[in-house]
Amino acid sequence: MVTVSRRIDEAPEIYTLELGAKNEGKSGQFYMLSVQGVGEAPISVASGFGRNLIFTIRSIGSVTSRAMGEGRIGVRGPYGSKWPWKEYNEIVAVAGGIGIPPIRSLIEEMIDAKREGDIELMYGARSPSDIVYKKEINEWMKSVDVHLTVDRGDDRWNGKVGFVPTLLKDSHFSRKAAMFVIGPPLMMKNTVKEAVSLGYREDRIFISLERRMECGIGVCGHCNVGHRYACEDGPIFNYSEVMTEPELFL
Amino acid sequence: MERVFAAISGDFETYGAVEKEGEVLFDRVHSLAEVSENRSRYAPKEFLIRRNENVLYLEEQQRKAVFGIKSCDLKGFYLMDRQILNRDPFYTERRNKTLFVNYVCNTPCEGGFCSSFGGPVLDEFDIQVLREGNDYHIMASDKYDKYFNGCRNDDGSYFTDFKRKFNTEMPPLKVDGLESRIKWNSPIWKEFASRCISCGACNYSCPTCYCFDLYDDGDERKREWDSCVLSGFTSSSAGNIRNGLDERLRQRFYHKFVYFKKSKDEFLCTGCNRCVEDCPVGIDIKEVITHDYSNE
Amino acid sequence: MSVLTVCPYCGTGCQIVVNEQGTEERVTGYSRSPVNAGKLCIKGYSGLSYNFSRDRLKHPMIKRDGEFVRASWKEALDETADRLLEIIKQYGPDSIAFQASAKCTNEENYLMQKIARVVGTNNVDHCARSCHSPTALGLITTLGAGAATGSIESLSASRTYFVIGSNTTEQHPIIGTKLVTERKKGKNLVVADPRRTQLAELATIHLQFNPGTDVALLDSIMYVILEEHLEDEKFISDRTEGFPEFRKAIDKHSPEITEGITGIKPEELRRAARLIARDRPTSILYAMGITQHIHGTENVMSVSNLALLTGNIGVRGSGIFPLRGQNNVQGSSDMGVLSEWYPGYVPVDSPRVERFEKLWNKRLPRNKGLALSEMFDAAAEGRVKAIYVMGENPLVTEASVSDVETAIHNLELFVVQDIFMTLTAGEADIVLPASTSLEKEGTFTNTERRIQKVNAVYPSPGEAKPDWWILNEIGKRISGIQGYESPREIFEEIRQAIPGYAGATYENIYPTGKQWPINAENPEGTEILHTKTFPLGRAKFVPVVYAPPAESVDEKYDMIMTTGRNYFHYHSGTMSRRTDILERESPEPYVEINAVDARRLGIRNSQTVTVESRHGTIRTKARITEKVPPGIVFVPFHYDESRVNRLVGKQVDKLSKIPEFKVVAVRVFA
């Protein structure tokens, strides 16, 4: 059990918990968070390696709604695969909606490694009020190339309106860049499709897949993507390795 | 063989298949004579994966010897080993402390198709017994050879002959290449779904099904056998990757005949026919193997 | 250690073998069972872990100043008995009422009604009131026995199945699978149900008729049979009476006339009628879809008319199968925990009650007692001062549940014995912790009249005691009856009380059970009833004329809601919601609504909506589906977080007093 040191309301039904422990996981990995008597849920880590453990959670299930009010929560992990950012010179990180936390973790790691110039962020949310990490994004904008869009604007929004894939053509990197994609299934599907048609290589696209994960260690059998388990071989997959799986996106 | 039993019972708590009200079930036994030659009502998975248990602590396990498990059921553990041994600490602790003495069937059982998957004589075993009248033919793995003091009467050739004879009585089904023959969009999945009532019998009866569900009960965390034909098996906050019962039934057969083959180079099926026997609507896994997918 | 016993969920009564290893269970179906032949549904396989739930009641509790305080058994029993006696002394025996339970054993139910009657009241009733009281009354009126006429096994001999008002694959799954398997072999299946259930999908003909129009539908089927001369004339003349009067009533129900009521096209109905009457033997299966109506008893008699008209009774493969809800509804009804019947369906005002006066050595009450649905009204009016509940959860399950709450608060004493702190138990003055059926001995009688032995697998947790033990202690204290040493001793008395049970012993019903009547002529029991004669001699045709349900749509309440159970959730959820897998599969209530209606009302899938009736309101999630037709919504019953019974009115069947759970006018909005 770990103490919750800070709670932040990010957007409707979305909140961030900072815990009194260090993150031993790499960006893209996840931990199993638990509320006693309720259960466990897999949550991607939102902070960079070595920083304080941070999770951003959408209250939708029993655990994720209850974790908000708890003073202490159970944490086990880290589990799963990580974003392979060290292997690429240019990275386009594409996040939709509540998919942004593992990308925050990625940006923090790249900032800590003084490689913030090698990443571009493409992030879309349903509406301006659904944008998570407003403060952090403003901070990143100083050194990272950030592109934002919303599905529906409001009176005060003077940025771009449109779905996430429409951002891809704004990238300043070459088409040889690696692309990391995470978000709702439909957004990922369309983003990957758009990326391939723009000339990005399938084996340089990495996607993060969400599945029902229970054990985190490849034993309980719930999270298979074809013959692989998302908790062990994923959640980050090289797109070219899984693109023929019929059960890829919901 | 009685002497072997006595020697083993010095080191292990002894269990065996025993008959009760016409059912063959597993219970404590204290002599070899108590052990039934008949096939047990169910695959005794619970020796290694309890149906329901607390996972917050792992107690040190008793050393157990299980007599009379049939080859098809034992083979299930060898298949599970490939995925969960040394990953699942509960399974691993029990696996390492359990000795199985498997009985090889003399004659084919009704509906069984173990010969399709290399049974009933196993390549991997602790102590393998084939009884012909009062003669016991025994093979022991190196680990358990000590119980025989070199007085084992078999070098395996008897088993080779037996296997040949058995295969003529139970001709193996064509399983080669099944992983590429089977079709994702075959109409059989929908036909199965029209009958299926999601009872979970196929999973619970299967000697190779290892999936479980984790849940909280008060301040305890427990695990319980799960079933992939249930919609809650995959539903998550993001939705459900397998909303249709036909998709879930397909998952079960794809896991057995495609996914496990790809990742472990084995079919996750021992040909025991238990899922067929326990299915209340007659869904037959053999149909998945023999079905002609070529025009689908 | 392995123990052979009976699954505690539905009325099918599957035999299970529980391999006990400490606090866990390995369950398999008993392969030699004539009921389930080794098969089980998900509740059998995965539904038993409630037994080891951390929430089990482990010691007696008495409420002091609004808080439960732990008590010893002696304190709790003495206080219960003293307060009951005081109330009887002050207001008379009819000021107390007992609610028995179809979840408990025959022995326990028998004992409870005996205690009630020996202290002088027929105020003893149970949940059969809300499920099959119309069956008991209806079939006793027409045939002379209110039970399934054949066996589950005998269904394989049918050539046609007519299923009306039963979602068999979800509610009685193992019986349902029999129908599925036989249908796949090519047998005919006619399903009459407002919802498109799995069986309806498989059916030869699905009559998707309007809720509450059963009599119109059945009468029209019989109209066609008579019109086309498909009736069994020999059976009618040899074995029945009242045919001419019945025929006259049917004449009003041509399919062309009833189409406007039922919504069924005449040609469709004619096809169904031909299958039912021609391709015999036909078995007729029904459940709550027939009984939970203000015309429930008439619906049952109408089903009976159809079986008689086509000669589908008394032969293997034919017959009437009322599918019993609870594991022991048949048995508890047999035991007479019904306010108008002594054990064995002896009417309370009949001279045959003398038999019990002799057996129990006591003058017994001859007036009808209060039905379950009347007990709470009587409590609200102050006529009943104490209610003693065994294993029921009326605060969730009764119709018009908000009134139940008020009624309970008006009581001087409310005692609940149960395995969990249910919502109802939470309102009690005294709570007595009971054992589950996996922790005690006794018998259950399943939906095919099979008396089966129940055996203890586990010890009871804490100080929990079997219900029979608790009742026995109360009985000794308040009714002066001599105590029993064991369930077996009670069963021996049941054999004397009920002729159909006379030939059964704990030994001879083990392991596979026997179907009553079991007596000198039928020592092995009776698989098929009414083969040569009916208990009434001749069976009666009863003319039944269609009358509309109590509720109908109007401008404001423009949709009809019907209620029922789903596969994973069982009744008030006391057991099923404390098992991991069942709760995971169905964690919350919902309202099924057709896509057309959803679009019209601007409702998205999974959106929380309001369902409002003339009696109350609930909030629950919408589930858009083609299972229900436009104009109809379906809500599963008994989730305590949105109790659908708040929407159900108080109208009851005049004859059997069952509330109309199946037809409620509602409106749905986002």
Number of separate helices of chain B: 10
Q: What structural class do helix, strand and pairing data of chain C support?
A: alpha/beta
* Strand line-up across the major sheet of chain C: 5-4-18-17-16-6-7
Number of domains of chain C: 3
CATH class term of the largest domain in chain C: Alpha Beta
How many individual helices of chain C? 24
Spatial order of the strands in the main sheet of chain B?
Answer: 2-1-4-5-6-7
How big is the Rg of chain C? 24 Å
> What separation lies between the terminal Cα atoms of chain B?
53 Å
Task: Give unreliable regions of chain C as ranges.
Answer: none
Low-confidence stretches of chain B: none
Largest beta-sheet characterization of chain B: 6 strands, mixed
Number of strands of chain C: 28
Main attributes?
heterotrimer, A: 250 residues, alpha/beta, Elongation Factor Tu (Ef-tu), domain 3, Rossmann fold, 2 domains, six-stranded antiparallel β-sheet, 5 helices, 33% strand, B: 296 residues, six-stranded mixed β-sheet, three-stranded antiparallel β-sheet, 10 helices, globular
